[in-house]
Structure formats: structure tokens, C-alpha cells
Amino acid sequence: MSTTASLTTKERLLESGAKLFAEKGFAGVSIRRICADAGTSPNMVHHFFGSKQGLLDAIAEQLSVSIFAIPIRLFQTMPASKADFASRMQMLLETTLEAYIENRALLLVVVREEVDTQGVLDYSKAFTEFLERAKRDGFVREQLDSEMATGAIIDRILNQVSFAPQVRRVYGVDIISDADYRQRWCELNLDLFLNGMAAQ
Amino acid sequence: MSTTASLTTKERLLESGAKLFAEKGFAGVSIRRICADAGTSPNMVHHFFGSKQGLLDAIAEQLSVSIFAIPIRLFQTMPASKADFASRMQMLLETTLEAYIENRALLLVVVREEVDTQGVLDYSKAFTEFLERAKRDGFVREQLDSEMATGAIIDRILNQVSFAPQVRRVYGVDIISDADYRQRWCELNLDLFLNGMAAQ
Question: Which value does ipTM take for this structure?
């Protein structure tokens, strides 16, 4: 955490809240504790965010914008070929997975507390629109429901990161610390999502 | 809950625990409360299960066996054709989704408390083996990683049920109460998982 004077009180509360929620969960940290960590008086969370929930909502919004900043850029230009579409999808899986891993502790708090964020909605919408345009360009099957595909891929990445300790316990593979497995996981899931299960 | 004399003390504790954990979450209910509901003396959870966690573990095991009882039967005989394989997959999606919905409250507690159960492992294993056999019969693509496909489908169903209230808030569709949407959801996801995203 930075405590430089250049941060405003509000910014310091967002930083302290993010750090402490990630460490101790939402229920495990008090407003008083967050304000102490941020070096502000105890009523500042109320002043800026209304409540502890309001602070979490603001932190979740910042987080979702930050997580999806790189992945969402992949939707900004259209692929030039089927191979280009496939490699774009692979980058999408990799960059989203990495952003989730990097922010795992705080992400789990946000998911557990069921916070809706504009960031994830914007990402989902951009993803779905990208698939619809790729459909018009002939890279995606006509029959595909683009919203379902978007949802399925996000579910897959979220759960692999959420349940990483259980997957490690049961299957002995670790998506968080093992970069080779992470890459292999992306390749195998890309194959599933691009080509499906059924033999031709 | 049944309180007939035919249930043993241990069975009554499993029933009361399942009911109360589903209503109030794991942290929200005490051993004393569970024993009172089951009409037993307060030391019976300790006696039969060691601890509140031990009781939850036993409830989770019962739940996972019960949830997967119908879906797992779909793996017991092999499909006779590609069309038969596809309809088996559709029944699998539908029956697993319905079992998750029916047990949603307790399932969320089990997921949240990160309980591993043999029931879900047996289901995953049977699912993966079914896909491997279907591969040998020519219904599933050679290149598919059957474990990844199993995981992706389970992730998709689990999250759709877990996040149902958020999906309802944001998209206005309700997989829990709307049987038509549930069927449509299964069809669209089946299409994704069978045929993939990519145009041929």
C-alpha cells in the first residue's frame, strides 16, 4: 500500500479497503480498522461511501475495470481470418485468466458478496458483440448463441481460479503457480470452446 | 423434516443440519441449535460427527450422492449413434441442472465452505470415462480433452444456479422459476458444447 501524501483520503480508503478485504474477507474487517489503516478519522468511510458495503461496491468497480482493461482491448479490432479469430480467443483466455489469478483474493470477496459491477457487464457485452461481428465475418457459427458462449467462458475461468486450491488437492495441478499447466489449460479449453465435443 | 421415531439420532442430526445450514449458512447455526431441532442432547453432534464441520462433511456427502444419482445413470450404457450421444448430453445437462436447482441452498453452503465430496468426484470420473468411450465409438472428437469438457460443463451448470439471482437482476431471466428458459438454456449450451464456436 502507498501512503504517499499525493493520494487523497478517498483513494487511501479504497487502497486500505481492498488490501484488508482481500486479507480478511468482508465480514472480517471493521470500518474503524480500514480508517486506521488509511490514516483517516473513523467517519470517513461513511462520508465518502455511505457504508462498508458502499466502500466494497466502489472497490469492486475499480477491480472489475482493472481486471478487464487488457482483455477488453482484444475486442477493439476484428480478426482478419479464422486463424486470427482463434488466436484472439486464446489471448482472451490467457489474459483474463491471468488477471483473475493476480486479483484472486479480492475477486473472491466480490463474488462471495454478490456485488454487481459495471466492469464485468461491459466486458460481457463487448465479448458478445465481438462474437456477433465475427459471426457476420464468417468466423463463428451462425447457430451459436453468443451470450451463452460469453457466459460459459467466463464461468470456466472464474471457477478454475476460485476452486484452484480444491483442484490442487484433488488433481494435483495448480493453475496459480504452474505457468506450463496454465498454458496447457488455456489450449485445451480453447479447443473445447472453438471446436466442441462432437465428432464431425 | 421428518421426526418419526423410525429415524435414528444420527439421521435426525443429518436432517436438521441440512435444513438449518440451508436456511442460515454454516456460520449462522450452532451445534446446540441443531441438536435442539433434532431433539437430541447437545453432545450428539460431537459424538457422531466429531464437530460441526464433520456434520457438514457428512451432509455434503449425502447431498452429492443424491444430486448425482439420476445424472450418473446416464453414463451406464453407451449411446448407439451421434444423435443418441447428443440427446444423452442434453438429458445430462437437464437432470444435473434440475438437481442443482432443487438443492440450491444447501449446495451453496457446501461450495462456500469448500467441502470436497466423493460424490462429485465419482460423477466427474464417470462423465470423463463416458466421453472417452464415446471417443472410441466415434461420437466425440479425438482431440477433445475429456476432463476439460467435464469440468467446463459442471462449471457452467453450477454457476448458472449459484448466480441465478444476479442473472435475474441483470438480464431479467430466471433459470430457477422459468421452465421454458431452463429448457432453452440447456439447448443453447448443448449446442455450444457439442459444436463449438468456430465456423467450419
Answer: 0.91
